[in-house]
Amino acid sequence: GLPDAWQPGAGTRRAAGLGEVRLAGGAIAAQRWAEVVEPTPTASMVDIQQLGGFSISQIEATGDAVARDAGLDAIELPWLLAFLAVYVLLAGPVAWFVLRKRRPALGWLVVPVLAVLFTGASFVVGNDLRAGTRAAHGSILEVGAAGTRATTIIGSVSRAGADGVSRFPAGWTAGAVDNSFFGVPGADLSVSSDGTRTEATVPLAAGGFGVVKGSGPSSAESGDLVIEARSEDGAVVGTIENTFPFAVERVGVFLGRDGDVIARIEAGETVEFELAGNELRSGDPYAGPETRVWPRESGYNGNPDFTSIVNLGLWNEVLLASGPNARPRGVVTVVGWTRDFTPDVEVVGQGRPQGRTAVVSRAPVAAGTGIAPGAARRELIRAPNGFELPDDQADLPVIGGLWQFSLPPGDPGALQIDIPFYMGRIDVWDGTAWVTVDDDLSTRTDAFAGDPAQIRSAPLPAGTGADGQVWVRGWLLRDFPFDGAGLEIVSLEAEA
């Protein structure tokens, strides 16, 4: 019942979309679990620490970004301090100097009058700030073979004290959203469903702002970002077809920590892309690709641009929710942005919300000419200090970890491993034992001071990867965070 392209054939496993098909050979029925159960991927410590590769100081919390789209703004601190300073001066030193030689008793009248006047001014300014507010959203559309799933963060402003009520389609779930700048208004959130829709209510006082998150299958728009990717002439190349009825802008194309940007893809348009797969080209193996793809929005060369169509708070939601599968090697991840999508959500009394949407699509790198850098899927399996070194190297300042590489379909041919500068030793599993293919630890006892983009290569034993998998364990210098950026399985033909 499987498509021909998914049949394992002579092997025991075959790549199938974003997963794989494996032949168990009766091991499951016989409960020989060690033969079929493998370690599951773990998230990169670098991605966890940097929230997807960019500093928390460079992004807004998602709720805060939605608040901006809702038109909600706070008075800037200098103006607020000036307002308070004027009030304190008038109610204090000025009133005292003016009244002390005339009628000091008038102070009992002047100070309350000043308080009333400044309170009125505060009310007028605050009411003016709320006058232009509207319901807003920040949405994520994740498209794929199983359909489109939407995650929508809804922000609503109470102008006169009414609660924020959001109605989601049937089959959706709803919950609270942490919102760092405006507090956490979801503490008293109530959710109900009558079978035809899900309704979430956030209690709000006048001028309050509430956010709620809903997710479920999307029927608001039909479309896809259809990706075709393959390994060819030492690079990953392909096309992206936009079948949505709207254009997507500032389109990020990611291959692990490598990335590029396409300015715009019109509705119905197909564009080409090419990724060399070099994760270390920035000179920093731990700088997230977002800083190269969206430098203005990430604040790479200055202050972040929060007015852009790119909402890094939303992309951060994708990274944290997807964990190690957010943008792995071997999978092309495309992220396009639009303001033309309106989620199938109603905010009672405020209509359909407007805002920014991230459209996310993924596709594996298919068989092509050889295996280019980034074409093999790399997953971190165990870290750190997962393995011990031989006694003669036991005191070296290194940590060890394990990676699993899944190769594109087809005969991999002769393979080699590309080793980043911060790794000192690499072993490969040959089916029965670990084989050391590169050992540079004896010369790497001090902190590395060379070119961070430096790569060295080592051939792999004949027959490695014949079943589509390569297991690699390596040791890294402790001076660098644990990750694996730059570690690649490539074909000798592709490198040549």
Give the gist of this structure.
With 496 residues, the protein is α+β, with helices and mostly antiparallel strands.
Q: Could you walk me through the main structural features you see in this protein, from its secondary elements to its overall organization?
A:
By secondary structure, the protein is α+β, with helices and mostly antiparallel strands. The protein has eight helices and 25 strands. It has helices at 45-50, 62-69, 77-99, 107-131, 290-293, 295-298, 312-322, 492-495; strands at 13-16, 19-22, 136-144, 147-157, 164-169, 173-176, 190-193, 197-202, 209-217, 225-232, 235-242, 248-255, 258-265, 270-275, 331-338, 346-347, 354-364, 377-382, 398-406, 415-420, 423-429, 434-439, 455-459, 469-477, 488-491. Strands 6-9-4-3-17-15-12-13 form an eight-stranded mixed beta sheet. It has a five-stranded antiparallel beta sheet with strand order 18-19-24-21-22, with no helix packed on it. Strand 3 (136-144) and strand 4 (147-157) form a beta hairpin. Helix 3 packs antiparallel against helix 4 (107-131). The longest helix is centred in the first third of the chain and has 25 residues, at 107-131. The protein starts with 12 loop residues before the first strand and ends with a helix.
Show the helix and strand layout.
Blueprint: E1 13-16, E2 19-22, H1 45-50, H2 62-69, H3 77-99, H4 107-131, E3 136-144, E4 147-157, E5 164-169, E6 173-176, E7 190-193, E8 197-202, E9 209-217, E10 225-232, E11 235-242, E12 248-255, E13 258-265, E14 270-275, H5 290-293, H6 295-298, H7 312-322, E15 331-338, E16 346-347, E17 354-364, E18 377-382, E19 398-406, E20 415-420, E21 423-429, E22 434-439, E23 455-459, E24 469-477, E25 488-491, H8 492-495
Helix pairs in contact: 3-4
